[in-house]
């Protein structure tokens, strides 16, 4: 009788079609959960717009009296948005790792790694919406990019690569954390990075110690590449190569770490 009531164990690995369907379902689960979390939506979508308005109208006049500070600050706000998205991903991933949902998925003939994919896709979607809103509001407050079509594609490509890298860092932190509260501590570190870079002020205006930190901050080459592409300014080869190298390097390390940590926690 016990044998009859016990769930049948999977007899083999899911085929490619089944894996794709399972992953799609788990992606849809994470995206739907995001839309039901009002605080997450406000943090991911509205807060970057508020920061853009604050930097433009509150600090912009003091930093750049010419009134063109909005052109300078838009790339920094976009990257700050990516930081918020990665922090939210860390918290959501930690919640899934500690609330028993992974154990439930393990009892089903599906690949639980689809949960990780779901969080990555949801983060990319959130950041895409936030970036579009930031750029749209920036146009309303006077943003005047001079980018060509290729420039826009290049800038958006760099943003996507940066978001992907930070998202996987958030996933790794979420898996490693003991719970959502511990993962939320990641927010401070990831949100602090853009402030000590070229995102909001030129590094040469900082004290020598901070200028050195800004020079080695991965946010600096990413910001400079985006700013140059959007404003039609020349971008040095060393700058965009450093931006891509930082993003790819962070992505690879975080991706491998997340995979190892996930299987270890399981």
TrEMBL record:
Instruction: Give the primary localization class.
Output: membrane
Q: Which GO terms describe its cellular component?
A: ATP-binding cassette (ABC) transporter complex
What InterPro entries does its record include? ABC2_TM (IPR013525), ABC2_TM_bact-type (IPR047817), ABC_2_transport (IPR000412), Nod_factor_ABC_transporter (IPR051784)
User: Its Gene Ontology molecular function terms?
Assistant: ABC-type transporter activity
Give the subcellular location. Answer: Cell membrane; Membrane
Please verify whether the record's keywords include Transport. yes
The answer to keyword Disulfide bond applying to this record is no
Q: What is this protein called?
A: Transport permease protein
Naturally occurring in which organism (per UniProt)? Cellulomonas biazotea
Q: What is the lineage of its organism?
A: Bacteria, Bacillati, Actinomycetota, Actinomycetes, Micrococcales
């Amino acid at each position: 009788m016990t044998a009859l009531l016990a769930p049948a164990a999977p007899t083999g690995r899911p085929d490619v079609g089944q894996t794709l369907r399972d992953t799609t379902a788990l992606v849809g689960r994470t995206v739907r959960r995001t839309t039901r979390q009002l605080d997450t939506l406000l943090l991911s979508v509205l807060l970057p717009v508020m920061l853009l308005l604050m930097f433009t109208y509150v600090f912009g006049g003091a930093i750049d009296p010419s009134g063109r500070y909005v052109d300078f600050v838009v790339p920094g706000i976009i990257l700050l948005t990516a930081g918020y998205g990665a922090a939210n991903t860390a918290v959501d991933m930690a919640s899934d790792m500690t609330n028993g949902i992974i154990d439930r998925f393990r009892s089903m003939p599906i690949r639980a790694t689809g949960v990780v994919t779901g969080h990555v896709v949801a983060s990319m979607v959130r950041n895409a919406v936030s970036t579009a809103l930031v750029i749209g509001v920036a146009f309303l407050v006077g943003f005047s990019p001079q980018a060509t079509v290729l420039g826009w594609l290049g800038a958006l490509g760099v943003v996507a690569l940066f978001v992907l890298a930070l998202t996987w860092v958030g996933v790794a932190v979420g898996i490693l954390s003991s719970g959502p509260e511990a993962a939320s501590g990641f927010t401070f570190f990831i949100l602090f990075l853009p402030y000590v870079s070229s995102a909001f002020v030129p590094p040469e205006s900082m004290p020598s110690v901070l200028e050195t930190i800004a020079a080695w901050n991965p946010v600096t080459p990413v910001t400079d590449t985006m700013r140059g592409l959007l404003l039609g300014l020349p971008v040095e080869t060393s700058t965009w190569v450093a931006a891509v190298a930082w993003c790819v390097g962070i992505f690879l390390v975080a991706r491998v770490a997340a995979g190892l940590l996930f299987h270890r926690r399981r």
